[in-house]
Amino acid sequence: MAAVSFVALIGAAGFRATPSVLIHPLHAEFGWPLATISAAVSVNLLLFGLTAPFAAALMDRFGIRRVVATALLLVALGSGLTVLMRTSAELILLWGVLVGIGTGSMALAFVATITGRWFVKRRGLVTGVLTAGGAAGQLIFLPVLAVLVERSSWRVASLVVAGAALAVVPLVVWLLRDHPSDLGLPAYGATSVEPPPPAGGAARRAVGALRDASRTRAFWLLAGGFAICGATTNGLVGTHFIPAAHDHGMTETTAASLLALIGLFDIAGTIASGWLTDRFDSRVLLGAYYALRGGSLLLLPMLFGDAVRPSMVVFILFYGLDWVATVPPTVALCREYFGDRGAVVFGWVFASHQIGAAVAASAAGLVRDRLGEYDLAWYVAGLLAIGAAGLSLALFRGRRGLVLAPVMAGAPGSAPR
């Protein structure tokens, strides 16, 4: 299950590498401002997050296999049809809406669902490995797409992403299962086979989890920190690193290779973070991750140049290790505070991650259009990341009183403490 989920996440990750590679080619062919193209990315990032909690609930209602296969088909459709588009509205519909819903259904709430159902022991480690699937996809696709754009066209790159998503669908339909009990097995580390919980209304379950969780201080601290996480990764670096490097004279292929290296180091960092999450307090880990990320982003504007210098390589190594290392401890804290509904609550926390990413993607595009450079965006992101470290450490204060007992137990009609 972990292996199939990993491959499925790689197949869906192709589009995550697409916007940063295609921003300049689309600007050159259609003349659309960077802010307009960034708006399509923002819609994608927003729906990527807002779809996640409903997708987690839909997996409870209809099964993991059906939801994941449908999501991959949407990613393929949205990416493939871009070769026919002529207006920026079509870009927003395809990149933003179709691919946003598809990738959102394959987001980290899917990871939380898999680990919550299939693993009792080693949950943190498996969460780290599956989260690294997205980074692995970025590592695989970024250099390939950059070369395809340079030597052929952006349309070929879009079709390759569509084909990769389609190629994974048969594997998902064949091997993915919903519960260990479907195979007569206990979850890894469990001592008995547990029957699957009764299915309920997906939308009601998702909204109910948000209603109850939003009454707790822990939810808002986690959501606030994760919103900044999204702004400082997918929204800013993931979308604008290549254009920013291009502004300083670096070729897009070289910049794409650097971004792919972030994905390479992210695999190691996220797996290590999962291992650490099984052994140390997740609040401390989050505080350290965000503080280190903030410091690195404050230094980034001084590191750009027309060639790759050792200082930039050090940044890539350091920042890559920290890219989504925040995911395993955040998933663990959602499970700690919200129990059986932790995967759905994490879907909402992840929605805040993508709201932050969407705001940052648009805001950075506007900064570049108005000021002619990205420096202000990097400085603001660095300060926000340091603020996220404070939010994470604030979870220590009165943490026992923060646990939402009714959400953990699922007891109707109870009030949160």
TrEMBL record:
Q: What residue stretches are annotated with the Major facilitator superfamily (MFS) profile domain?
A: 1-400
Q: Which UniProt keywords apply?
A: Membrane, Transmembrane, Transmembrane helix
Which Gene3D superfamilies does the protein's record reference? MFS general substrate transporter like domains
Q: What does the UniProt entry say about where the protein is found? A: Cell membrane
PROSITE patterns cross-referenced by the UniProt entry: MFS
CDD domains per record: MFS_YcxA_like (cd17355)
Record's signal peptide: none
Lipid bilayer topology: Multi-pass membrane protein
Q: Which InterPro entries match?
A: MFS (IPR011701), MFS_dom (IPR020846), MFS_trans_sf (IPR036259), Proton-linked_MCT (IPR050327)
Regions crossing the membrane: 33-55, 67-85, 91-112, 124-148, 154-176, 219-242, 254-277, 284-304, 310-331, 343-364, 376-396
**Transmembrane: present as a keyword of the record?**
yes
State the superkingdom: Bacteria
State the Pfam families in the record: MFS_1
* Protein known as: MFS transporter
